[in-house]
Amino acid sequence: MIEVLSPGAANERRDREATPVLYGRSGVREYWIMDWRRRQVQCCRRAQEGLHPATTMIEDELLQSPLLPGFPCPVRVLFARVSR
C-alpha cells in the first residue's frame, strides 16, 4: 500500500498514525508513506499484530521491499514530477 501524505497537520497525523492501524487490521503487510515535502518514503512493515515503521528512505536511496523481490526503485524517481 502506498500513501501520499495529505496536506495539513491533521491529515498528516491521520496518514501516519490512524491509517497504518486500519491497514494493519485489514492484513496489509507493508505500507509506504510518501512525504512529498521532505522527498522521502517511510516504510512500515507488519510486525506481530500491526504495521510499524521499519525504515525511512531519502532521495538518494533505493526503495526495496522483501515483498517485491527484483523491483528496486530509486526514491528520486517517485518524486521526479514534484516541484521543490
Structure description:
With 84 residues, the chain is α+β, with helices and mostly antiparallel strands. It has one domain. 25% of the residues lie in helices and 36% in strands. Strands 1-2-3-4 form a 4-stranded mixed β-sheet, with helices on one face. The protein is flat and about 30 Å long. The chain starts with a strand and ends in a 6-residue tail after the last helix. The model has no long low-confidence stretch (mean pLDDT 90).
Instruction: Determine the fraction of residues in helical runs and give it as a percent range.
Output: 25-40%
* Distance between the first and last residues' Cα: 25 Å
Broad structural category: alpha+beta
Could you describe the largest sheet, including whether it forms a barrel?
Answer: 4 strands, mixed
Q: What's the overall average pLDDT, rounded?
A: 90
- Count of individual helical segments: 2
The proportion of strand residues reads 35-45%
Q: Shape, please?
A: flat
Secondary-structure element pattern, one letter each = EHEEEEEH
Rg: 13 Å
Low-confidence runs (pLDDT<50, min 5 residues)? none
What count of structural domains?
A: 1
Q: What is the strand tally?
A: 6
Strand order of the largest sheet: 1-2-3-4
What labels would you give this structure?
flat; alpha+beta; two-stranded antiparallel ribbon; 6 strands; 84 residues; 2 helices
